[in-house]
Predict the structure.
Amino acid sequence: MSDFVSVNSYSTFKAQFSATVIQSAPILLSDTYEVEVDFLWADMDLARGNAAFMKMRYFLEDELHQSVLTYPQAPMVVNGIENNIVLFPFVPTNDIIAMTLHAKLNTICGQYIDIISVRVGSKYAHPNLIYTYADDEYPAMPSLKDFIGLDKDEYYYDQPWWYRNDSTTGEFDTSDDQDLTDPPEPDTILDDIEKMVMGELKLHDSEGGGEVVDIKEWKPKIIDD
């Protein structure tokens, strides 16, 4: 937690995303989730803070939008679709979504933004209940072994996806890969967003002989604090 900003003063980012949810029964539900993130600008490097914010914004508004939310013991398997799959540790109810997003956003934002709380509500749920996760730790989150049944030496990574600083929202199949030192390459969009905000990734006009860098039709805005 930042030591130069009072925890009573913070910023709030509001976002929403639509998703298809697999429940404990073999039922598919469509919903729109409204998310509010309370956070602190935790570092004096404002440019890095802006980059962290834009990564958080991308993850909530773009990476999660039109995803399928599922979990390891789901009663149906989703195969052969191009939607992003979000593999939660348990049935993706609002409390589990909020806790998992809290962990992932803290990881993505690193030292530059402290996530205070994440609130998640289902727009079309009745009654419309909002769950808030505001703990600094995640004692209910499973270990990698409990999550996917593999130990650290049996998998590419030593942490589940919500503790990895990338855009992944699930795990990989290792059954056909004997070289665990060479994990599948995740997309570089979070790194690209940071480089764009920091001015390290240039966008050139193709008519001028340069290369147009298109990050899923997403363009950043610099946030003035």
Confidence is low (pLDDT under 50) at residues 209-213.
